[in-house]
Structures are given as C-alpha cells and as structure tokens.
Amino acid sequence: xxxxxxxxxxxxxxxxxxxxxxxxxxxxxxxxxxxxxxxxxxxxxxxxxxxxxxxxxxxxxxxxxxxxxxxxxxxxxxxxxxxxxxxxxxxxxxxxxxxxxxxxxxxxxxxxxxxxxxxxxxxxxxxxxxxxxxxxxxxxxxxxxxxxxxxxxxxxxxxxxxxxxxxxxxxxxxxxxxxxxxxxxxxxxxxxxxxxxxxxxxxxxxxxxxxxxxxxxxxxxxxxxxxxxxxx
Length: 232
Ligand code: APR
Description:
232 residues
C-alpha cells in the first residue's frame, strides 16, 4: 500500500478561522514570541504564557474542521493508501475531522505536561488551565507545546514516517521553522511532492518533481484528495 505523508502547518486551519503565524494578520504580528513561546517566558511570566495558550485552546474549541481536514480524513478512511499526517499545528482539527494517524511535532493544546518530563502528559478538559495545578510528579503542569529553543521529541518519529513516504504533501506551511521544515530533506528524491498554499513557496533546493496547487487549503485539498482516490 502506498504511503502518502501529509505535512501540515497553520494554513490548513486558516479556513477554520484560526490565525496563522506569519501572515500579515498572523499571531506573531500581535504577540512577541519571546513573551509567549519560550522557556524563559514561561519561567519569567508564567501567567501570560498560560493565558496565551488558554486563549488558543478557547479559540480551537469554538472552531470546526474545514473541508481540507475532512478531505484528508476521507483519504485515510478510503483504505487505498497508508495516510500519515505530520502536523506542526497544536489544534485537534485533524483528529476531529476523523484522521487517526496524526503526529504532532509541536505539541497539542488538548494536553498539559509535566515540567520535568517533556512527554509525560495529562488531558485538559475545557479551555482554561489552572496555573497552580501540579503533575503527579510534583512539578507544575504547563502547556504541552514545544517552545522555540526546546527539544522536538516527536522529530525522530516524523523522520521515520517521512523516509518511507511514496508521496509527500505540504499544506499551509511557510517552511520557515526548523527542525520541522527539515523533513523535506528526508523524502526520497524520486517521489512526487505536492504543495497546497495560496502563496507559491520557493522550493528550488528540493529536487523532487513538484506540483504546486496555489489555492486555499479548503479549496485545493479536496481536489487533490479526489485526484489521489480516482487517478493515482
Ligand atoms: N490555505 C492554505 N495555506 C494557507 C492559507 C490557507 N487558507 N492561509 C495561509 N496559508 C499559508 C501561508 O501562505 C503560509 O505559507 O500557510 C502558511 C502559514 O505559515 P506560518 O504562519 O509560518 O505557519 P507554519 O508554517 O505552520 O509555522 C510553523 O512556527 O511559530 C511556529 O510553532 C509554530 O508550528 C508553528 C511553526
């Protein structure tokens, strides 16, 4: 069974009404990364960081998966391909659309984690974290989010998934954040690469045969899924 690996970024959730990071109206146009997405920010201004992710979680729970998430779940459920999603997103819209094989590189808003062990998580109900809540190991709980400068514990898993791809699809990522974006260097050189993004990406250094679909994800991904199911 051919393996289709789908690498998604904030753009796949944009059509659900969730802001991206680097578009002109993106999150990093309104917040400073140093104040909400670094280990130093968490230790120096814990309340502000927890509130930032409370707001992200609240927004996520108010939004719905869009046609792109739904099409990707349909592709997996068709059973014709081994579909693996590797996402940079911390929302749960892929799962709520029905995707089962989802690897989150940068964490998940639906979980909190121990401050001592990066993979020791607990589920969070609702959107609001009690800042004083502790893990069973005694440490204060924190958002299960990989901050800038922190280790990406799921990277090796993502690399192994990517190495075995027969098709690689990039949806809604500016490919500016490493090590996540380095996955493109682990795909076999002969496999087809598809990119869905309303802004054409510069992929000159990627030797693979590349097909760019210059549309919003909610428009282009269902068409791409139909192509895979009917003609691929
Ligand atoms: N459909 C598809 N793509 C879209 C849409 C849309 N409706 N709207 C915007 N995009 C594209 C943009 O053109 C851009 O290429 O989505 C991409 C968003 O890029 P970023 O905002 O940089 O998001 P992402 O690549 O996911 O960022 C990676 O950076 O801040 C960190 O941890 C954070 O996971 C995030 C990482």
